[in-house]
Design brief:
two-stranded antiparallel ribbon, alpha+beta
Length: 70
């Protein structure tokens, strides 16, 4: 059995297993990257933990331009 990967919280710097964190996509220098928050920081910032994990599992869908009608 493999050991769970450790990550650090983007806000407070706490180290924890990845499954105990709330991942979100953040735009940094024009690119989207996945950042992780601990449960306490996620609640303080108003990030729904289950909602964040569901969005990441579905994959990020950026804004698409409206379809042009012929």
């Amino acid at each position: 059995m493999a050991k769970e990967r450790q990550i650090t919280c983007e806000s407070c710097g706490r180290s924890m297993p990845r499954y105990k964190s709330a991942p979100i996509f953040k735009k940094v220098f024009g690119e989207f990257r996945k950042v992780y928050f601990c449960i306490g920081c996620a609640k303080h910032r108003g990030i729904g933990v289950h909602e964040a994990k569901r969005r990441v599992k579905q994959g990020f869908r950026g804004r698409r331009p409206p379809a042009k009608k012929p």
